[in-house]
Amino acid sequence: MLWGHQDACFVLAANYSCGGFLNQPSGHFSSPFYPGNYPNNANCVWDIEVQSNYRVTVIFRDVQLEGGCNYDYIEVFDGPYHSSPLITRVCDGASGSFTSSSNFMSIRFISDHSITKRGFRAEYYSSPSNDSTSKSPCANALGGLSGGHCDDGLRPNTFGFYRKMN
Fold first, then answer.
1. In the chain, alpha helices (H)
2. What is the pLDDT of residue 82?
3. Is residue 85 part of a domain?
4. Taking every annotated instance into account, which residue ranges of this chain make up the domain CUB (predicted)?
5. Is 146's pLDDT higher than 60?
6. By CB neighbour count within 10 A (0-12 exposed, 13-18 middle, 19+ buried), where does 78 fall?
7. Scanning 2, 66, 73, 138, which has its CA 20 to 30 A from the CA of 158?
């Protein structure tokens, strides 16, 4: 027994920033502290905007998140994340590329309160569109109108991505 010693709980609060606005024709981003472990309770949003009449393609590499898609995950939106259709949800071990229907894409990374891993790194680039890249309420690469409402029809596949299922 140590005299004058009290058990104490120390909480180390790491200051970090994540997310942001990316407006170059191409670039890269990663989870906080990559390739070190990302923090608990992360909520990061990257908004990517390229020039008009171009589309955004994002490529995920080295995705190491807490297992499944229930705890830690990445969401790819076809425009601003708070008002646009979900293109896909990227889970542990997944990789691949996704393209927007417009010149704007949002990526959101969420981690829960426990278990952290290395996270992810991603690259993005812009490419000319054959069409105008102005957005319609339900326009996206995977979804469409069904019965007068937006139905993205997204279902999980064996690779950890949510994909349009016919």
1. none
2. 86
3. yes
4. 18-127
5. no
6. buried
7. 138
What CATH number does the domain containing 156 carry?
Answer: 2.60.120.290
Residue 45 has pLDDT above 50, yes or no: yes
pLDDT in the model for residue 68: 81
Give the per-residue pLDDT at 76.
Answer: 98
Residue 4 DSSP class: T
Residue 15 included in any domain: no
Which domain range does residue 131 map to? 20-164
Residue whose token pair is 């979804």:
143
Tell me the C-alpha distance between 10 and 31, whole Å: 25
Express each pLDDT in 83-128 by its tens digit.
999 999 999 999 899 999 999 999 999 999 999 999 999 999 999 9
Does residue 112 belong to any structural domain of this protein? yes
Spatial neighbors of 118 by CB under 8 A, at least 6 apart, are 31, 34, 35, 36, 37, 38, 62, 64
Domain count for the chain = 1
